[in-house]
Amino acid sequence: MSVTTSPGDSGAPERPARTAAVIPAAGRGVRLGPGAPKALRPLNGMPMLVHAVRAMAGSRSVSLVVVVAPPDGADEVQRLLDAYPLTGRSADVVVVPGGETRQESVRLGLAVVPEDISTVLVHDAARPLVPVDTVDAVITAVRDGAPAVVPALPLADTVKQVEPRTGERAGEPEPVVGTPERARLRAVQTPQGFDRATLVEAHAKIALEGDGATDDAGMVERLGVEVVVVPGHEEAFKVTRPLDLVLAEAVLARRRANDGF
Ligand SMILES: Nc1ccn([C@@H]2O[C@H](COP(=O)(O)OP(=O)(O)OP(=O)(O)O)[C@@H](O)[C@H]2O)c(=O)n1
Ligand SMILES: C[C@](O)(CO)[C@H](O)COP(=O)(O)O
């Protein structure tokens, strides 16, 4: 494991080390198609992961960022982060090797978060453009007492539940078996924010049971602990398929035009 401390605001007062952000970045990006691991692909010339690290470090509350690299790629990721140091503020950035699944990668990242840090964010490297206001809204809700917080948006599409065909009928059109009430559904984003002890317990339980979940809040739900929602942001979308890269470049071009950076 290696540690990089970025150059920070000279003379800025020390903040207590209370919020850490774990960034799982160990995925291959199969749905994005052939090429480098997804987190290392460039957006406006800078790796997606660096955008995500800066998005987390952009919150004044975040004092530690744990990047979970591909299992055999921690050194490469460390070199890359060294090449793109944080600008404007300081946070410690730590790189650890990840695992075979997102869940395992988060658990490995969480393992190096010091116990004196009470609030932990988990943020996909694949959501590089989340605005800092969304990050801060999640942190505030946790600090105000919620053990688990997710940013989320209402759905634009109607959602159907289907019954996959199996056996001789595999491949035939799937039958619809339900239409959940759209007004009560939310599309969940990251960063998801947690009381550290709750998240550690949730990951330990799921690992012990050999079970899986597609997001961290889902694991906490299984403890019977309440998860609450704060407003997400359309720019916090996940880069999953090739068209998402086009959208991400367009968002960055709009930011450059608006902010002149
Ligand atoms: N073994 C894994 C798998 C995923 N992730 C991370 O979890 C986040 C969300 O996962 P996803 O978007 O599904 O990324 P990939 O697994 O890379 O995508 P795909 O399923 O298309 O391969 C990403 O930042 C990804 O790097 C991880 O850290 N470790
Ligand atoms: C955590 C997540 O981004 C919340 O929407 C999502 O569940 C990750 O799913 P993926 O299939 O690993 O991209």
What is the name of the CATH superfamily?
Answer: Spore Coat Polysaccharide Biosynthesis Protein SpsA, Chain A
| Helix content range | 25-40%
How big is the Rg? 19 Å
CATH architecture group name: Alpha-Beta Complex
Uncertain segments of ≥5 residues (pLDDT<50)? 1-17
Distinct ligands, ions and cofactors found in the model = cytidine-5'-triphosphate, ligand LQXTBERG
CATH class identity: Alpha Beta
What is the CATH third-level topology name? Spore Coat Polysaccharide Biosynthesis Protein SpsA, Chain A
Query: What's the β-strand tally?
Result: 13
Number of domain units: 1
Silhouette = globular
- Mean pLDDT, to the nearest integer, reads 92
Largest sheet: 9 strands, mixed
How would you explain this protein's 3D organization?
The chain has 261 residues and is of the alpha/beta class. The chain has one domain (15-259): Spore Coat Polysaccharide Biosynthesis Protein SpsA, Chain A. Helices cover 30% and strands 21% of the residues. It has helices at 48-57, 74-83, 102-110, 132-143, 196-209, 216-221, 242-259, and strands at 2-5, 19-24, 42-43, 46-47, 62-69, 92-97, 119-122, 148-154, 161-162, 176-178, 186-188, 192-195, 228-231. The strands form three sheets. Strands 1, 2, 5, 6, 7, 8, 11, 12 and 13 form a nine-stranded mixed sheet that branches. It has a two-stranded antiparallel ribbon with strand order 3-4. The chain has a two-stranded antiparallel ribbon with strand order 9-10. Strand 3 (42-43) and strand 4 form a beta hairpin. Helix 3 packs across helix 5. The two termini are 33 Å apart. Mean pLDDT is 92; it is low at 1-17. The structure holds cytidine-5'-triphosphate and the ligand C[C@](O)(CO)[C@H](O)COP(=O)(O)O. Cytidine-5'-triphosphate binds next to helix 3. This is 2-C-methyl-D-erythritol 4-phosphate cytidylyltransferase. Belongs to the IspD/TarI cytidylyltransferase family. IspD subfamily. InterPro entries: IspD, IspD/TarI, IspD/TarI_cytidylyltransf_bact, ISPD_synthase_CS, Nucleotide-diphossugar_trans.
